[in-house]
Amino acid sequence: MPQIDQIATTFGSQLFWLFLTFGLIYLVIGRSMLPKIQSTVDMRRKRIEDDLEAARVAHARADEIEEDYRRQQALDREAAHALTVEAKGKAARDTEAKLKKADAELAKKLAAAEAEIAAQRDAALAEIEDVATEAAQEIVAKLTSAKVTKAAASKAVKGALANG
Predict the structure, then answer these.
(1) Are 150 and 133 in contact (CB under 8 A)?
(2) Separation between Cα atoms, residue 152 and residue 144, nearest integer Å
(3) CA 24 to chain CA centroid, nearest Å
(4) How many CA atoms, within 13 angstroms, populate the side-chain half-sphere of residue 33?
(5) Is the pLDDT of residue 44 over 80?
(6) Mean pLDDT of 130-150
(7) What is the percent of the chain where pLDDT is above 90?
(8) Number of helices and strands (H, E) in the chain?
(9) How many CA atoms lie within 13 A of 126 on its CB side?
(10) Is 38 helix (H, G, I), strand (E, B) or coil?
C-alpha cells in the first residue's frame, strides 16, 4: 500500500514541523503573552486585595460611626428626658402659682360675700326689729287699749330677741 509507505517518509518532516510550530507557539505565548497575562492576573489580585482591605477599613469606620451615633442618640435621649422633667416641674410650679392666686381671689370674693351677707342679715334683723316693734305696739294697743311708746316697744322686742 502506497499510503503506508508514504507515512515513513513524511512522518519525520511532520514531526519536525509539529515541534517547530509548538515551539514557536510556546515562545510567542510563553515569552510574550504569558507575562502580560500574568501581570494582568497579578494586578487584578492586588486590586481585589486592596478593595477587600478598603472594605474592611470602611466596615470598621462604619462600626465606629454607628457607635458614635448610638452614643449621641443616648445623650440626646437623656437631654430630652431632662428637658421633659424640667418642663413638667415648671408646669407644676406654674399651676401651683395659678392655684394659689385663684385661691386668694376666691378667698377675697368669699370674704366680700360673707361681709355682704352679714350686712344684709343685720339690715334684715333691723327691719325685723322695726316690724316687731310696730307689731308689738299695735298688738298692745288692740289688746289693752294702752299706748306703748316706740322706745318701750323697741326695748321689749330687743329683750325678747336677746333671750330667744
Answers:
(1) yes
(2) 15
(3) 81
(4) 7
(5) yes
(6) 83
(7) 54
(8) 3, 0
(9) 6
(10) helix
Cβ(155)–Cβ(132) below 8 Å: no
pLDDT digits over 85-134, tens only? 999 999 999 999 999 999 999 999 999 999 999 999 989 888 888 888 88
Joined grid coordinates for residue 29: 505565548
Residues 6+ apart with CB under 8 A from 157: 129, 132, 133, 136
Instruction: Tell me how far apart the 2 most distant CA atoms of the chain are, in Å.
Output: 192
DSSP 10: H
Provide the pLDDT for residue 30: 82
- Give the 3-state secondary structure percentages of the chain, helix then strand then coil, rounded to 5: 95, 0, 5
Read off the C-alpha cell for 4: 503506508
Assign 3-class secondary structure to 55-118.
HHHHHHHHHHHHHHHHHHHHHHHHHHHHHHHHHHHHHHHHHHHHHHHHHHHHHHHHHHHHHHHH
Cβ neighbours of residue 137 under 8 Å, at least 6 residues apart?
148, 150, 153
User: Which amino acid is it at 88?
Assistant: K
- The model's confidence at residue 84, banded by pLDDT at 50, 70 and 90, is very high
Q: If we measure between CA atoms, which residue out of 80, 76, 77, 99 comes closest to residue 88? A: 80
